[in-house]
Design goal:
Length: 144
């Protein structure tokens, strides 16, 4: 039986899943037709940080930019150049190339001054510290 007690967590889960759906397919549905989102990203929270991994095979560090805006937006911008000999004949192409921009709305505010990023073996790893305003605070309850 659905009650007000269990409806709120269910509604939050529904909103979270819908947000993930629109992040994946784009607000206008265009990504649904154009293929998978690039780069694929994993996001998880550990203690007071947000950790993000993005797969960027074939990308060079000079072709990558990272921005934190508005305390909770992360943007990855770059270009993966085509790796094909000038005189080659293409028979199949499954890996995409070209310019990309991927913006994520983060689950909480982060401190833009405490961001660390490392790019190794085609994997970008980003650690973002929670902003003080997003950290839990213990409230002292006074009694009579």
């Amino acid at each position: 039986m659905l009650t007000s007690r269990n409806a709120f967590p269910m509604w939050n889960q529904f909103q979270h899943e819908m947000g993930r759906l629109f992040d994946r397919w784009g607000d206008d549905g265009s990504r649904l037709l154009s293929g998978p989102v690039f780069p694929p990203i994993n996001v998880w929270e550990v203690d007071e940080t947000l950790e993000i991994e993005a797969e960027l095979p074939g990308l060079k560090l000079d072709d990558l930019e990272i921005f934190v805006t508005g305390n909770n937006q992360l943007t990855l911008k770059g270009e993966r150049k085509a790796a094909m000999p000038e005189k080659g004949v293409r028979h199949r192409q499954e890996r995409g190339f070209g310019k990309f921009v991927r913006t994520l709305t983060l689950p909480f505010a982060v401190d833009a001054n405490k961001v660390e990023a490392r790019f190794e073996n085609g994997v970008l790893r980003i650690n973002l510290a929670k902003h003080e305003s997003a950290k839990a605070r213990k409230i002292v309850v006074k009694g009579e």
